[in-house]
Amino acid sequence: MLSKSEIQTVLKDKYKINKAITNALQRTECQELLDTLEEGKSVFLQKLIQSFAETNSTLGKNNRILGQQRSRLEKKYKKIEQECQELQGKISDLETRKNKLKSIETNLSEDNRKIEQEIDELKAQKQELQKRLHTAQKEKQEISSKNKQLIDVNGVLKRENRDLKNINDALRLKFAQEMARLMNLENSEIRKGLLKIVNLISG
Q: Which of 55, 107, 127, 196 is deepest in the core (most CB within 10 A)?
C-alpha cells in the first residue's frame, strides 16, 4: 500500500498535480483521486485538475522569476544609493576646500576654478545617479505590485482548490446514494440505474 507521500509523488509526476494542491487531502482521498484519474472515469475532473496544475506551475515559475528580479533590483538600488552617498561626501569635501581657499589668497583662483569644475562634474554625475535611482525605485514598485497580484491569484487558486474538493465529495456522495438505491431494484432497473451513474460520472 502506497503512503500519502508516494501517492502525491505519482500524482505530481504523472498528472502534474503539485503537492501543494493535495496536501489538504487525506491519504484515502489522494488514493481515490489517483484511482479516478487512472481509470479515466471523469474527463471533466481530469481536465479540471490539469488546468489547476498548469496554473499552479505557471504561478510558481512567475513567482520565482519575480523574486529573482526583485533581488537584483534591490542590490542595484543599494549600490546606486551607496554611490550617491559617496559622491555627496566628495562634494561636501570639495565645497569645504573651496571655502578655505577663498579665505586664504586671491591668487588661488585657478585652483578654485578647477575645484568648481570638479564639483560641477560630480553634480552632473550625482544627477545621473539620482535619475538611475528613481528608475530603480520605479522598477521596484512595479515588481512589488506584480508580487501582490500574484499573491491575490494564489488566494483565488486556493479557494478554487477547495471548491474542487467539495465537487469531488458531492460526486462520491451521489454515487453512494445511487448504489444504495440500486440494491433494491430489479435487474432491468439496475442496468438503467448503472447507465445513469456512468453518465453522471462522465460529466
A: 55
Residue 108 and residue 31: Cα distance in Å, rounded? Answer: 89
Q: Phi and psi for 11 in degrees, rounded to 5?
A: -60, -40
Q: Cell 508516494: give the residue.
A: 6
DSSP class of 25? S
Return d(Cα 135, Cα 141) in angstroms, integer: 10
Residue 2, Cβ neighbours under 10 Å: how many?
13
Nearest to 182 by CA among 203, 163, 160, 200: 200
129 neighbors 87 (Cβ within 8 angstroms): yes
Residue 75 CA to residue 58 CA, distance in Å, equals: 26
Write out the chain's pLDDT in tens, 203 residues: 789 999 889 888 887 787 877 888 898 988 888 888 887 755 656 666 666 667 767 777 888 888 888 888 888 878 888 888 888 888 888 888 888 877 777 777 788 888 888 898 888 899 888 899 889 888 888 888 888 888 888 888 888 888 888 887 887 787 767 766 766 666 666 666 666 766 665 55
| C-alpha angle 81-83-78 in degrees, rounded to nearest 5 | 35
- Distance, in Å, from the CA atom of 12 to the CA atom of 6, rounded to the nearest integer, reads 10
Nearest C-alpha neighbor of 84 from the set 117, 137, 120, 131? 131
**Amino acid letter for position 195:** L
Please say whether the beta carbons of 11 and 32 come within 8 A: no
Task: Tell me which residue has cell 581657499.
Answer: 101
